[in-house]
Amino acid sequence: MKAKCYWNLNQAKQGNYVFSVVNTADGKVDHYSGEITLKNCTLHVNTNARLKIAYGGKKSVHAWIKGYVSDPVSTDGLSVATYNPKRDVFFTDVSTGNCLPLGVDIVVLRSENKRGVIYYE
């Protein structure tokens, strides 16, 4: 299944730290997950929505990763990325501070310590 995944802010407010997994075929949330692996991924940030949030506006879903849901893979050896709309213009490598390319081979989204962590290759 091709899916669009993003950190679910509403679920986090209720103590459920999960990602929403949207089936791109029908645009509906298929399920919520604390960990999901995607392959052949594209990364997206809506710039206008990001700027509104950066300047104090209400948080909204404006950044996501699309890819094909895959069997779980080990995160050993994968790089870690982050995204913060108040600081970053795009998904950013934690080690180097460089922006990620628009497309990456593998992404593992995982809920760790009440936060969403992005592993990628």
Verbal overview:
The chain is mainly beta and about 120 residues long. It has 2 helices and 9 strands; from the N terminus they run E-H-E-E-E-H-E-E-E-E-E. The chain has a 9-stranded antiparallel sheet, covered by helices on one side.
Please name the defining characteristics of this protein.
48% strand, 2 helices, 9-stranded antiparallel β-sheet, globular, 121 residues, mainly beta
Tell me the number of strands: 9
Low-confidence runs of at least 5 consecutive residues:
none
What structural class results from the helix and strand content?
A: mainly beta
Overall pLDDT: 96
Distance between the termini: 20 Å
What is the structure about, briefly put?
The protein has two helices and nine strands; from the N terminus they run E-H-E-E-E-H-E-E-E-E-E. The chain is mainly beta and 121 residues long.
Topology:
Blueprint: E1 2-7, H1 9-13, E2 19-23, E3 28-33, E4 35-45, H2 47-54, E5 63-70, E6 79-82, E7 92-93, E8 103-112, E9 115-120
Antiparallel strand pairs: 1-2, 1-5, 2-3, 4-5, 4-8, 6-7, 6-9, 8-9
